[in-house]
Amino acid sequence: MEAKFFRFLKIVGVGFKARTEAEGRQLFLKLGYSHEVEFSVPPAVRVFCFKPNVICCTGIDKERVHQFAGAVRSCKPPEVYKGKGIMYIDEVVKKKQGKKSK
């Protein structure tokens, strides 16, 4: 029996989107930059987008799946003031308080 490993990523932010092409071989991310961020997915990993803000990385090699998910997350890690960015679905981001006005 082959074990499948999953890693779900959630994109939080206005206008942030993800889409896949070529049967999960290409991942395109719109993250508020002037360009679209493009990822070519390694052979051991498959990528699906259920909604424009949920990415699922899956495969039979746990290390490669997690490494790819970490690479995707690193282009826009969660930000502590507003909570925007790419985070794992089970990740909790502790929000910080902004500057206090007097």
Walk me through this protein's architecture:
With 102 residues, the chain is mainly beta. The protein is 12% helix and 38% strand. The longest helix is centred in the middle third of the chain and has 12 residues, at 62-73. The protein is globular. The model has no long low-confidence stretch (mean pLDDT 85).
Relative helix content: 10-25%
Question: Based on DSSP secondary structure assignment, what is the total number of beta strands?
Answer: 7
- Rg over alpha carbons: 15 Å
Q: Could you give a short account of the major beta sheet? A: 4 strands, antiparallel
Total of DSSP H or I helical runs spanning 4+ residues: 1
Query: How far apart are the termini?
Result: 63 Å
- Estimate the strand proportion: 35-45%
Unreliable stretches covering 5 or more consecutive residues: none
Look at the structure and give the mean pLDDT.
85
H and E string: EEEEEEHE
Shape: globular
Strand order of the largest sheet: 5-6-1-7
What structural class do the secondary elements suggest? mainly beta
GO molecular function: rRNA binding; structural constituent of ribosome
Domain Large ribosomal subunit protein uL6 alpha-beta: 14-88
Keywords: Ribonucleoprotein, Ribosomal protein
InterPro entries: Ribosomal_uL6-like, Ribosomal_uL6-like_a/b-dom_sf, Ribosomal_uL6_a/b-dom, Ribosomal_uL6_bac-type, Ribosomal_uL6_CS
